[in-house]
């Protein structure tokens, strides 16, 4: 079965699957993102991230604790930021959890300020939510008015994704499902 992760990384329970997600180019501002291919209810486990533990941060690492970062440029590192995310990361278990109901066709998002003390690189936010903080730099550099927000807050604004991107992702899902069925039959 095709994985998002390379073969040198051990398979972990709840690894993201091609049946549930697709990594695709979103636009020039945001680069690649993770498209959700089926519905998930609030509180559902979405996936468990995998990668290599490092002491230094990079563009695709997520902070697991002070001075400890998990490098995942293959999948979790492609989850886009939103100030009103539809998921959050439990750093103890490395599980991404749905903070609200997520519908197929949405981009998977998380709030980078919830896991990172300081980001590898601060950036102007383009999430478009009504609660957008403008600049994202990590929880230690977050504006005082935004500190202390709970990461399990239930959110209602759905992410929008053009229908053409969704159709492309669904075609890729069918291709990989057929490829897996052919490989399993041999």
From TrEMBL:
What keywords were assigned to this record?
A: Transferase
SUPFAM superfamilies of this UniProt entry?
Answer: SET domain
Q: Which GO terms describe its molecular function?
A: transferase activity
Extract the InterPro entries matched here. Answer: Flavunoidine_N-MTase, Post-SET_dom, SET_dom_sf
For this protein, the record's PROSITE patterns field holds: POST_SET
- The record places domain Post-SET at 121-137
This protein's record includes keyword Transferase: yes
Q: What is this protein called?
A: Post-SET domain-containing protein
Native source species: Bythopirellula polymerisocia
